[in-house]
Write a structure and sequence with these properties.
10 helices, globular
């Protein structure tokens, strides 16, 4: 899948932009705060119909503007052309259209235009709470499995109802079981999908980490869940007295996590900044392979500030991975250093473009 062109109106600091992209590597050069990452966020917004980061959607509209609009034209792997537009009007909400036809539900769009992003904030996948890692699993699996998102919604509704009962001090077992039946059905599907996802990406993750680090160290990840060896109903029954005292549901798939390891030790505790970033990039490249293989569509890869915290040799190996062969398609890379980007583009060939970014304006420059 290739994003051939994009039209942007009042998205963050981008007042207006009309850009055409290379089907290969597209580099964005500029100082911090100029709008490089905002363009990547606009591309993500088209694919996922929500912000890249956990921020209010109202923060996406340029200061002083009443609305925003992002429109993209895609060439799909199947040979068809697709147009997507996503806009937000203050006081009226969000609209999302595919080929000028509005979706009945925005969730129908997820997975149609897959995307993988690597940003500086992704270090939270290693250093942050389990919620960050669950959100990663949910975002990726939802792109590959349309039924997964509906299971998350059903489980979340049941969880909210159960927590309200716990806070109210209700102790009637039959009332709980009527709510928990829906939770258990959805939770089993969520758990199975997360377990299968982990098993699918681990081999690729280990391979990418080994190549990027030049076998300097080994890394691993593992899916942890209270449902790995028990059914949810059994867990809820056992924890109900404790949950009544706490006032919330203390166990279930909403508490799942991924352990991140560096050799025999915790990556979170002992990993250097470079090792953590290597871990993140290897994980995201494995996710790229997963989405491409599951959905049959080559995702777009967004690499925001990947040169930071990595030595030159690791950066060179990352670029060699993503620019060689046919595994990866269209790539967007941002950096503040022209030399870095020139070195990146030197071995890629003519299918690339370089844009200079300043105050939300874009200018293509010679490579």
């Amino acid at each position: 899948m290739i994003l051939e062109r994009i039209d942007i109106l009042d998205f963050k600091n981008i007042a207006e932009a009309k850009l055409e992209f290379s089907p290969g590597v597209n580099c964005l050069l500029g100082r911090n705060g100029m709008g490089k990452s905002n363009l990547l966020e606009a591309i993500h917004f088209l694919s996922m119909a929500r912000p890249l980061r956990s921020v209010p959607e109202s923060s996406l509209t340029r200061h002083g503007a009443e609305m925003l609009m992002v429109k993209g034209e895609y060439a799909m792997d199947s040979g068809t052309a697709e147009t997507v537009s996503c806009g937000i009007v203050k006081g009226r909400g969000k609209t999302l259209r595919r080929n000028d036809k509005e979706y009945r539900r925005i969730s129908e769009h997820i997975g149609k235009f897959p995307i993988v992003t690597v940003t500086p904030a992704d270090t939270d996948i290693v250093t942050g709470s389990g919620e960050v890692r669950r959100r990663l699993m949910d975002t990726v699996i939802s792109q590959a499995d349309p039924a997964y998102l509906s299971r998350l919604i059903r489980y979340g509704r049941g969880l909210d109802n159960r927590n309200k009962m716990l806070r109210s001090g209700i102790s009637d077992r039959l009332l709980y079981e009527s709510i928990e039946a829906t939770m258990c059905e959805a939770a089993q599907g969520i758990h199975d999908a997360r377990r299968e996802w982990t098993a699918a990406i681990v081999p690729g993750f280990k391979r990418y980490y080994s190549r990027i680090s030049d076998d300097a160290e080994s890394a691993s990840l593992e899916y942890r869940s209270s449902l790995n060896d028990r059914q949810l109903q059994e867990v809820l029954d056992a924890e109900r007295p404790r949950d009544l005292a706490l006032g919330f549901t203390s166990a279930g798939v909403h508490r799942d996590d991924i352990s991140t390891r560096l050799g025999d030790y915790s990556m979170r505790r002992l990993g250097s900044q470079g090792q953590i970033k290597t871990f993140i990039i290897a994980l995201k490249l494995a996710i790229f392979d997963y989405l491409r293989d599951k959905g049959g569509i080559t995702p777009i890869l967004l690499l925001d500030d990947i040169f930071d915290k990595l030595d030159a040799s690791r950066v060179a190996r990352i670029i060699a991975e993503v620019s060689g062969g046919e595994n990866f398609g269209q790539i967007f890379i941002t950096d503040t250093n022209r030399e870095h980007l020139d070195e990146t583009l030197a071995g890629i060939g003519p299918a690339s473009r370089l844009f200079e970014v300043e105050q939300g304006r874009f200018r293509e420059i010679d490579i």
